[in-house]
Amino acid sequence: MQGEHKTGGCRIAKSVYSLWRSARDFSILHELMSTPPRKPPLIHRARAPLAPRSRKSARSIVGAEGTSPGSTGRIVDAITAAIVARRLLPGTKLAEQKIADIFKVSRTLVRQALNQLSRDKLVTLEPARGARVAEPSVDEARQVFEVRQMLEASMIRRAAAELSDAQLAELRAHLRDEQAAVQRTDVSGRTRLLADFHVLIAGMLGNQVLADLLSDLVTRSSLIALMYQSAHSAEHSFDEHVAIVEALARRDAKSAVKLMQDHLHNVERNLRLDPRTPDLGDALLPYAP
User: Fold this and answer.
1) CATH top-level class for 4-133?
2) Which 3-state string (H, E, C) describes 45-63?
3) Which of 118, 127, 166, 211 has the most Cβ atoms closer than 10 angstroms to its Cβ?
4) What residue spans define the domains of the chain?
């Protein structure tokens, strides 16, 4: 398959999150966004995170954009990357004709891409309203993190026993990238890198099904974070990632599992999944004459 490389014996397609590193694709995404970012994202240096998206690989594009079988996949990848980078917010309208104009394809191909994103739970399709970036419910958010807890506990237990020294070195290099993004307050970059950490480990274990499942869940988690994000600091997540890698290096499976479970619990806990219903008087009193 084009655009793939091997990690730990598993064929892994290059991460959709790396799409935005292309200056050309980034300009397309910039035009697509109806909501401007708070700060322009910084271009992250090219280290290919190993998020497996074999069925959505941007490298599948061949020939002319408007006729290539990869055109639909490219639109899927671009919208997914924009969501992860926090450039497309929940509820954003995705106008078919505008997307078709941007990517120079037919509306039929755009519709196919939106249907695929709808199956991935990243887009909602409603009669008369068209397509919008999904707005996950509180129940869905809890369910996503529940599944991640089950998958990642098993994953990290295996990783403690199986990761090679070279793979641990790759994880440490990824942590250096995370730290740099956190220190320069690169919001979109650090969001992408913090998410990639989990998929990177999955890809190293040689289980493509696990890697694809986790990649989808991590992308949905990024969308959930946009809906329910709180003051939970990226620095805290980075520190927790460091502790997980240190436990993996010691081959301490028990500690690694506990650290991963605590990490996911902390991320979920710091989402506002139990918002207090505001009192109407308290909300409007400051504006009363």
Assistant:
1) mainly alpha
2) CCCCCCCCCHHHCHHHCCC
3) 211
4) 4-133, 138-269
Report how far apart, in Å, the C-alpha atoms of 104 and of each of 121, 147, 236, 260 are: 25, 38, 42, 43
Closest by CA position to 178, among listed 60, 17, 26, 16: 17
163, 50 in Cβ contact below 8 A? no
Domains 4-133 and 138-269 share a fold: no
pLDDT tens digit sequence for 179-220: 998 888 777 778 888 889 999 999 999 999 999 999 999 988
Model confidence pLDDT, tens digit, residues 67-102? 344 688 889 988 988 887 778 888 899 999 999 999
Distances (CA, A) of 194 to 70, 126, 177, 221, 253: 28, 32, 10, 11, 21
260 phi/psi in degrees, rounded to 5: -65, -40
- Taking the whole predicted model, whether its pTM rises above 0.70 is answered as no
Residue 255 neighbours by CB distance under 10 Å: 17
CATH 1.20.120.530 fits 138-269, yes or no: yes
Residues sharing a CB contact under 8 Å with residue 125, sequence separation 6 or more, in sequence order: 114, 115, 118, 131
